[in-house]
Amino acid sequence: VVHGNVWGHPDAGRIWDAAFTRLLVDDLGFQPTPLDPRLFFRLELDAPPTMIALIVDDYFITGAGDTAAEVDAKINAKYKTKGARPARDALGLDVDRVLLADGTTAITLSQNRAVQRILEAEDMLDLTRKADSPLPSGFTATRTPAPRSMITARP
Fold first, then answer.
1. How far is the C-alpha of 52 from the C-alpha of 66, rounded, in Å?
2. Cα torsion angle, 9, 15, 16, 19, sign
3. What is the rounded CA–CA span in Å between residue 33 and residue 149?
4. Which of 118, 83, 113, 81 is CA-nearest to residue 95?
5. Which long-range contacts link 34-41 to residues 24+ away (Cβ below 8 Å)?
6. What percent of the chain has pLDDT over 70?
7. Rounded to two decimals, what is the model's pTM?
8. Which residues pair with 98 in a beta bridge?
9. Rounded distance between C-alpha atoms, residue 40 and residue 45, angstroms
10. What residues have CB less than 8 Å from 74, skipping those under 6 apart?
11. Long-range contacts: 90-93, Cβ < 8 Å, 24+?
12. Does the pLDDT value for residue 130 go beyond 50?
């Protein structure tokens, strides 16, 4: 059991992880997945399973709306967390929700903001710049070696 603030303690991560895992497994009926011990699931009656991913001191919940909200409320009652909210980014990935034509919602993952930051840092935002191609005009890639007449030495 966590008594008080563990911030700054050398084993803070381990203490938090053990306490959160006990809450999920012992109190809320979740089980860790076999391949990732920080990803927990709970089978629900007449609803999709509820899943929780624990990432350092954050967590993500997915499942039926009412069930996920109930689990989040129980976690918040125990540890006074910020509570779950729709993820916008996680571990460098952008998380977007897209409404499909049939009325369902799809979740897409991308790294658009990460790529944007890299392009800005390397002064590569002007993608309209042209670069000479090192291949001769009309070159076609094939599985057979190119004829010697197509291969020229570069200066």
1. 15
2. negative
3. 59
4. 113
5. none
6. 77
7. 0.58
8. 106
9. 17
10. 27, 28
11. 90/55, 90/60, 91/55
12. yes
